[in-house]
């Protein structure tokens, strides 16, 4: 603890990486009062012209937001510190890599505290929209900024749409809503990995699921492109899930050959392991930057590209026990529209080709498959099937008159 304080207070930048590794380790499972105090010190150092190191400190800040969310919200100072740090980065010239990480942290906050930080959402949205209006060189930053707005939509669609309607496009009287929706669909092939694609689907489903009369009228202008864009994203999701399953199977096979060590790890071992995790965050980000520099505009086909650099910054939507499943939600929304708003349903589906209709059917089939798998897992965790005494009918009627 003393060494952390000394390095921060004296700006010993050559030891920042080691310090961030230590802070990450000490906040990975719990955050003590002393470590909350370190966040204040980090903020002080950040304001002393240390913005350029944001991507390096990001794993630590992610811990502060997600490890003890109750304590994080209990004192408004912590949320203010994190927001101000992100704001400083997005309003600076520190480089788009830092800006991408700042935008990601804002998205994590919106998803972590859904319904609990209404007063902060407008500030986040205004900050991100302001950044979108300035020059953006990489698709990664543009997509991440769009994703923050999508997270705000998922947080509270009515609030977000009101904010968009009140925000004009620069040098124009038009609202930004139509501009945002068009850019969102135009960039459908830029949403990569599991999380980003899941957000794409959940965002559009949130809009489609709004009551008739409350959806933005600008939706009509892009309605014919909604399902083709979703089909593209679902194809990517299928590849991403298959890639992750393959990785998990390979990891399980590798672990199966190791001799189990039942000895309890000491504190030094724990810190070493968590330090390795911190370095994996940074190495993944570095590899993604290299891929961004070397890649062209072709669609990613390599499974190695299915996980993005920011995928490791987990949100509540990424947890294994998360009940929000995008395939099932999409299927439920489309079935609901078919009964509650046939005009919009027909508008969405009228331009689909026969091949696209088959692809929608495949998405529905996978949704049902995932529903059945989730139900089977739930039953297994509950201790197996519970057979009840039911009266068996003596005759059956298949089709025809009932």
Which key phrases capture this entry?
single chain; mainly alpha; 67% helix
Class by SSE composition: mainly alpha
Low-confidence stretches are 259-264, 294-304, 392-402
Mean pLDDT: 86
Q: How many beta-strand elements?
A: 0
Which range does the strand content fall in?
under 5%
Share in helix: 55-70%
Radius of gyration: 24 Å
What can you tell me about this protein's structure?
There is one protein chain. By secondary structure, this protein is an all-alpha fold. The protein is built from 17 helices and no strands. Helix 13 (219-256) crosses helix 16. It is globular.
Briefly characterize the structure.
The chain is mainly α. It has 17 helices and no strands.
List the helices and strands and how they pair.
Blueprint (H helix, E strand, L loop, with lengths): L1 H8 L6 H11 L6 H15 L6 H13 L2 H6 L1 H15 L5 H17 L8 H13 L5 H17 L1 H9 L10 H11 L6 H16 L10 H38 L10 H28 L31 H15 L1 H8 L4 H28 L21
Helix pairs in contact: 1-2, 1-3, 2-4, 2-14, 3-6, 4-7, 6-7, 7-9, 8-9, 9-10, 9-12, 11-13, 12-13, 12-15, 13-16, 13-17, 15-16, 15-17
């Amino acid at each position: 603890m003393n060494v952390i304080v000394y390095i921060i207070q004296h700006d010993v930048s050559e030891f920042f990486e080691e310090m961030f590794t230590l802070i990450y380790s000490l906040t990975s499972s719990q955050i003590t009062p002393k470590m909350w105090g370190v966040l204040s010190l980090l903020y002080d150092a950040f304001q002393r012209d240390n913005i350029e190191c944001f991507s390096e400190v990001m794993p630590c800040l992610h811990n502060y937001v997600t490890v003890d969310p109750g304590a994080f919200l209990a004192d408004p100072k912590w949320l203010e510190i994190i927001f101000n740090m992100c704001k400083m980065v997005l309003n600076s010239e520190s480089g788009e890599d830092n800006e991408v990480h700042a935008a990601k942290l804002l998205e994590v906050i919106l998803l972590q505290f859904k319904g609990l930080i209404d007063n902060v959402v407008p500030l986040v949205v205004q900050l991100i929209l302001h950044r979108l209006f300035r020059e953006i060189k990489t698709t990664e930053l543009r997509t991440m900024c769009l994703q923050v707005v999508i997270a705000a939509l998922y947080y509270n669609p009515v609030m977000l749409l009101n904010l968009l309607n009140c925000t004009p496009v620069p040098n124009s009287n038009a609202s930004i809503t139509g501009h945002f929706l068009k850019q969102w669909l135009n960039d459908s092939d830029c949403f990569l990995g599991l999380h980003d694609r899941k957000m794409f689907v959940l965002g559009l489903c949130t809009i489609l699921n709004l009551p008739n009369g409350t959806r933005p009228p600008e939706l009509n202008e892009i309605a014919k492109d909604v399902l083709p864009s979703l089909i593209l994203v679902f194809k990517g999701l299928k590849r991403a899930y298959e890639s992750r399953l393959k990785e998990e199977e390979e990891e399980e096979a590798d672990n199966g050959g190791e001799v189990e060590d039942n000895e309890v790890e000491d504190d030094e071992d724990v810190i070493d392991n968590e330090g390795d995790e911190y370095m994996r965050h940074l190495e993944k980000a570095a590899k993604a930057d290299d891929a961004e520099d070397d890649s062209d505009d072709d669609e990613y086909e390599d499974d190695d590209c299915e996980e993005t650099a920011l995928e490791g910054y987990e949100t509540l939507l990424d947890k294994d026990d998360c009940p929000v499943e995008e395939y099932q939600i999409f299927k439920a929304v489309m079935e609901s529209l078919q009964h509650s708003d046939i005009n919009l349903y027909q508008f969405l589906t009228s331009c689909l080709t026969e091949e696209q209709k088959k692809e929608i059917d495949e998405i529905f089939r996978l949704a049902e498959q995932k529903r059945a798998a989730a139900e089977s897992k739930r039953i297994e965790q509950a201790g197996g099937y519970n057979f009840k005494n039911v009266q068996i009918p003596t005759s059956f009627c298949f089709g025809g008159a009932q």
